[in-house]
Amino acid sequence: MSQARTTQTTDESTVSREEVFDLLSNSRRRHTLHYLRREERPVELRELSEQLSAWENDVAPGAVTHKQRKRVYTALRQTHLPRLDDADVIEYDANRGVVEPGNLEDVELYLDVVPENEIKRSEYYLGLSAVAAALLTVAWLEVVPFDAFPMGTWTALIVAAFALSAATDVYYDRVRRLGHDGPPRDIEGSD
């Protein structure tokens, strides 16, 4: 087991923050966790390597060449699956060539990240609140041209802005969630 592991309770093992970030630093390991969460069943190493090859080469699983699958298969077998198994994130039976989800909850906590080209949610909502407060203030003071609409209209527009923002957050949370339908969404600039 890794030295980065935190102390273990009687029946539970937890993965340290450093170990999770190290595990997630590689796209093949992230894609493996994504696929296992999506399938929610034990999968054969051949099936896993074919799907990861398809994602990496942007082709359908049936269009993956032997060479593409073999490259991923070898890396998974020799490096990535043993590391994930040592961290108890998956259960990997090398003799049978079967991989199944382990303790993915420890990992999912760290997957809600903000890509480089996006603003943090807290900063976005703080800014939206400041704009809303400014709009309501100038509308209440009846400053031209903000006096053209009644206060109820401005309030409705602000509520709509917050609702649209929240709906957008819900959508992006779903497509970034580990195991969502479709290929994994990676963070730009990772790996």
From TrEMBL:
Q: Which Pfam families did the record assign?
A: DUF7344 (PF24035)
The DUF7344 domain is annotated at 21-100
Q: Which UniProt keywords apply?
A: DNA-binding, Membrane, Transmembrane, Transmembrane helix
TM regions (residue ranges): 124-141, 153-172
Q: Does the keyword Transmembrane apply?
A: yes
InterPro entries reported in the protein's UniProt record: DUF7344, WH-like_DNA-bd_sf
Gene3D superfamilies per record: Winged helix-like DNA-binding domain superfamily/Winged helix DNA-binding domain
In alphabetical order, the GO MF annotations are: DNA binding
Q: What is this protein called?
A: DNA-binding transcriptional ArsR family regulator
Organism of origin is Halarchaeum rubridurum
